Amino acid sequence: xxxxxLGCGPNKQSGAFxxxxxxxxxxxxxxxxxxxxxxxxxxxxxxxxxxxxxxHVDDPVAFLREAHRVAKNGAMIEIxxxxxxxxxxxxxxxxQRTFSxxxxxxxxxxxxxxxxxxxxxxxxxxxxxxxFDRLPDAPGFAxxxxxxxxxxxxxxxxxxxxxxxFVDFYEFYLAWMCPARDIEIxxxxxxx
Length: 192
Fold this sequence. Notes:
This protein is of the alpha/beta class. It has one domain: Vaccinia Virus protein VP39 (Rossmann fold), CATH 3.40.50. Helices cover 20% and strands 23% of the residues. It contains six helices and seven strands. It has helices at residues 60-70, 88-91, 105-108, 152-156, 159-165, 167-174; strands spanning 3-6, 17-20, 29-30, 45-51, 71-82, 141-148, 182-189. A seven-stranded mixed sheet has the order 3-2-1-4-5-7-6. Strand 4, helix 1 and strand 5 form a beta-alpha-beta unit. Helix 5 (159-165) crosses helix 6. The relative contact order is 0.16. Mean pLDDT is 88; it is low at 112-132.
């Protein structure tokens, strides 16, 4: 299995081909992921790891387009990035942006599960409605899994379960009071 570890830093996944902008020990290719196209072959990897790198790139759409290009059809793309409610998302001055769980739905065309309809349709709690159409010219992915990670305290009191079960409710109404740590998402590459 060919594994690509993007932005691997000094902690490259064992057996992977590591790419990083800095020449850490173990990095196989020193390359700025903002410089496109990446000097990697098309359809070469069965698994692509992007742990805490997408928040550093200038253009996440172009980043995912390149990851799609170098991955084989059916390959897994595994992304970890700070959730927008994580204070560390803002503490690092090299972070270009923050992400919501729903940001990745624009690459899959996934629609959120509708909230229970209230008796009064205009109730303030249920006014937020979204339909996620795939971005035009976006690479094709199918979502395999996603989850928000939390501190032990928020896991123990059930916030992690609630947030992962009711993502929209959590992000709209609880995220700033009970911040998540990271978004972990796995996408399957779909090529026609």
